Each structure stands twice: as structure tokens, then as C-alpha cells.
Amino acid sequence: MLGSAALAAGLALPASARAAAAAAAPAVTPIPYPHRVVTVVTHSSPGAGSDVLLREMLRYLQRHIGATFIVENDEGGSGAKAVARVSSARPDGSTLYATSPTYILTSLLSSPTRTYRDLEPLVNFFNDSEILYTRTNGPYKTLEDVMNRARATRGRWGAANPASQERQAGEQLKRAANVKAAVVSHEGGGDLMINVLNGTLDMGVGEVQEIRSQLGANRVMMLATFNPERMPAYPAIPTVKELGYDVTVVKFRGLAGPKGLPPDIIRIWQEAAQRILADPEYKVSYTRDNLAPNYLSHAEYGAFVNKFAADTTAYLKTTGVIR
Predict the structure, then answer these.
(1) Band of pLDDT at residue 290, cut at 50, 70 and 90
(2) What sign does the dihedral 286-268-304-255 (CA atoms) show?
(3) Domain that holds residue 313
(4) Within the chain, where are the H helices?
(5) Are 122 and 175 found together in one domain?
(6) CATH number at residue 49
(7) Is the CB of residue 7 less than 8 Å from the CB of residue 47?
(8) Same domain, 113 and 257
(9) Pick from 313, 180, 312, 179: which is nearest to 251 by CA?
(10) Domain containing 207 — which CATH number?
(11) Residues near 237 by Cβ (< 8 Å), separated by ≥ 6?
């Protein structure tokens, strides 16, 4: 669990923005919750994009749900360990899992004992932007510079764990560009960042919140986004598609729990999810990180997860990754 001053500084909003948002935020009464403490498990390593996003979101969520939230990083097996843990927990809303495409991809690309089918999607909060970045003082200034390198000598790109959407985005980009760059997997965004900064990798695939501190220090620069459209917070950054590579990727961010969550828990989370997305102070924070609100109710999120899994399965079969 992270608690360092450095992380706190990286997550902090500018004082003026925080003060204005706080002044605009109406007083709220937290929704009563049947558990004093709720553990939210992430497969992400400390400091990686999922971890940073989750800790920031839960900090605001405590205004709206009457419970204390604890984040636990349960790394291993590209999310398989975390999924197994949560799916085996009591289905009472005291233990939840931070969802992203990784937990579906791990289920499809390997044979874990527990899969995404053993979890019950609860609600979705956001769509997240996947971006390509490189070190500012390196030889690459555009995505085409990186592609030229990959055409001339194989090239080395970086992504998170093997079943991450970042890894899959990198592989799709290779296919679209017809290059043979190596996409090197990492345990998390922190390890990936180090290898981009030291020049071991030509570029990395990550998320805005994952690189924010280094972006602010002008040590890294974004090359492109996999979004279907340019990011509102970074309108000068082109999309991968407009640069000539037909790859579009959007990452979802939500919560799931063990199968059999009771209706009152589902109701609380549906109400709280809509409250937090409308929270003026949190809106400043998530807008800065280019997170796009995409609330999906329990029923909608379950249908979305099933469709995402079916579409991903079909794609992986066309590429020969699975049969």
C-alpha cells in the first residue's frame, strides 16, 4: 500500500482548483453501508495506473458511502490471483475487485482456476485513455520516428503484464503497422516507466495518470492516443488512427464482486457511482486525468462485460492467438 509524500503530491489537485471545487460541492450524507471496512483488491502493482486511479477514486467515494475503503494490491498471474481471491470471498459487499480489460484477457489467454465468469460485475465508472509515450530527451519526437526505428531494426516497446489491454494494444499496433517490434511485458507501470526513461524501450503503452508526474517534469512526452478521438485534456496529441494505423482501444474501469451480491449492495453502489461522478471536486480530478465518465448499472455492466469478452474472443481467434 502506498502512503508516501511523493504519491500524495502526485495526486494532489492545484490548491485553487481544489478550493473552488470544494466550495461548489454541496454537503452530502453518506449512504449507510452494512460493513465498516470494505477491501477493494487490484491486480495492479503500487504506482501503476489502475492503482493510482483506484486510490484517488476511493478517497472521494468515502464521502458518499459510509464505510472505510482499503486498497490491497494482490499481484500475480496477470490478475488471476486477485480474481481467485475475490471470487472466493463472501458475497456480502465487503470485498470487491477493481475491474479493467485485464481480468477478461487473462481468462481468455490462459487457464486460471477462476475467471471473469466467477465474478459479478457491479458498476462501471469510466472509460480510460490508452496512450503511447517516450522519453523527452530521446531520439523519437513522433510515432512515425518510432515506427521507422521498428522498420529498420526490430525495435522495443513496453507494456504492462502479458494479459493487459496495453499489451494487446501494442500487438494490434504492430499488426496494423506491419512491423516486428518486441512488446516487452512488465509487472506494472512503474517498471515500464523506468525502462522508457533509461532508453531500454523506444516507447511505452500506458495511461495518463500513470505518467502524470514525469509528464509534468517534462521527462516523458506523449506520442499518440488509442482513443477514437483526441483527448479533450490534450487536444494536440493525435490519435493512432489519424496517424494512419487502424487501431482504436478504450479501457473500462469498474468494480465487481463475488457471485451472488445482494440487491441492497447493488442498489447502494449504483447510487454511489452516480453521486461520485457528479461530485464537483472529484470531477476536477478525473477530468485532469482524461477519464471519461461512463456509468453502467449492474445490469448494463454485466451485459457489457459479456459482449466485450465475446468480441475479444472473436478478435483473438482471427489473429491465431487462441483457437
Answers:
(1) confident
(2) positive
(3) 5-128+251-318
(4) 5-11, 15-24, 49-61, 80-87, 102-109, 143-152, 165-177, 189-197, 208-216, 263-278, 280-288, 298-318
(5) no
(6) 3.40.190.150
(7) yes
(8) yes
(9) 312
(10) 3.40.190.10
(11) 131, 222, 223, 224, 225, 230, 231
Q: Could you give the percent of the chain with pLDDT greater than 90?
A: 68
Same domain assignment for residues 42 and 179: no
Lowest mean pLDDT across 5-9, 101-105, 122-126:
5-9
Instruction: Check whether residue 149 and residue 214 sit in a common domain.
Output: yes
Whether residue 122 is found in the same domain as residue 140:
no
Amino acid at the residue 84 = A
Residue 244 lies in a domain: no
Q: How far apart are CA 102 and CA 100, in angstroms?
A: 5
Q: Under a CB-based contact definition with an 8 Å cutoff, are residues 197 and 206 in contact?
A: no
| Structural domain contains residue 323 | no
Contacting residues for 99 by C-beta, under 8 A, at least 6 apart: 119, 121, 124, 252, 253, 254, 255, 256, 305
Same domain, 138 and 92: no
Does the pLDDT value for residue 261 go beyond 80?
yes
- Predicted pLDDT at 78: 77
Distance (Å) of CA 55 to CA 18, 41, 69, 71, 207:
17, 11, 9, 7, 15
Q: How many domains in the chain?
A: 2
Task: Please indicate, yes or no, whether residues 86 and 187 belong to a single structural domain of this protein.
Answer: no
233 assigned to some structural domain: no
Examine residue 234 and state whether it is found in any structural domain, yes or no.
Answer: no
Give the pLDDT band (50/70/90) at residue 20: low
Burial readout 149-170 (b: 16 or more C-beta within 10 A, e: otherwise): bbeeeebbbbbbbbbbbbbbbb
Does the structure show a pLDDT above 90 at 116?
A: yes
Q: What's the pLDDT score for residue 12?
A: 41
Q: Are 165 and 209 members of one domain?
A: yes
Amino acid at 165: Q
Among the residue ranges 9-23, 169-183, 186-200, 242-256, the one predicted with the least confidence is 9-23
If 0-12 CB within 10 Å is exposed, 13-18 middle and 19+ buried, where does residue 124 land? buried
